[in-house]
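Inverse folding, one chain.
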């Protein structure tokens, strides 16, 4: 049996600090621990230690409602390409953008991301 974590955000500086910023700090405080940036390889090592076989990694596009949140589909696609045996990539498209359908088409056809995550 495979064990899969179906909701993972990249633990990188790009996500934790640049995209999430103060919201990540609030979440860490709410759950009572600190959240330190890690590399993708460090994250995968931790998952291996916990016997988790695969993860579902999310891009995050909520720019129109948050005015800051974005972890690009291209960023997630590059990670998936390096770890295709361990990571399933989810695209994220801000549904409020005029380019949403074109962005989704690009993410699925060109970046080879598998599924869509909306965070309106």
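Residues assigned per position:
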């Amino acid at each position: 049996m495979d064990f899969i974590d179906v909701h993972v955000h990249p633990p990188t500086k790009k996500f934790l600090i640049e995209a999430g910023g103060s919201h990540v700090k609030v979440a860490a405080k709410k759950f009572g621990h600190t959240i330190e940036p890690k590399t993708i390889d460090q994250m995968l090592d931790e998952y291996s230690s916990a016997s988790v076989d695969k993860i579902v990694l999310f891009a995050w596009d909520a720019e129109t409602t948050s005015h800051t949140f974005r972890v690009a589909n291209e960023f997630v696609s590059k990670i998936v390409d390096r770890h295709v045996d361990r990571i399933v990539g989810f695209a994220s498209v801000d549904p409020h953008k005029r380019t949403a359908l074109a962005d989704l088409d690009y993410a699925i056809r060109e970046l080879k991301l598998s599924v869509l995550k909306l965070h309106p």
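The helical segments are 13-19, 21-31, 40-49, 63-66, 73-82, 100-109. The beta strands are 4-8, 54-58, 60-61, 70-71, 87-92, 115-117.
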